[in-house]
Amino acid sequence: MITAKYIPWDSIGAMPDDRKEGRLMLLWEGDRPVIGRWDDGRKGWEDPEGMHLFEEITYWADINSPE
Length: 67
What we know:
This protein is an all-beta fold. The chain has strands spanning 10-11, 25-29, 32-39, 44-46, 57-61. It has a five-stranded antiparallel sheet, with no helix packed on it.
């Protein structure tokens, strides 16, 4: 089983700009991991299902396929 502490999290301030082109990312919001993507029009991280903006994103990680 993989837990959130074994994921290679990086500070949201260290995210390269190429990650903000709409791809799904693993994000840390408040006290939980979420899947989200950057919304350039609203300049924020959004939930791709509900389309609401997340407010407390502090860390990110790429979503990688199992290999």
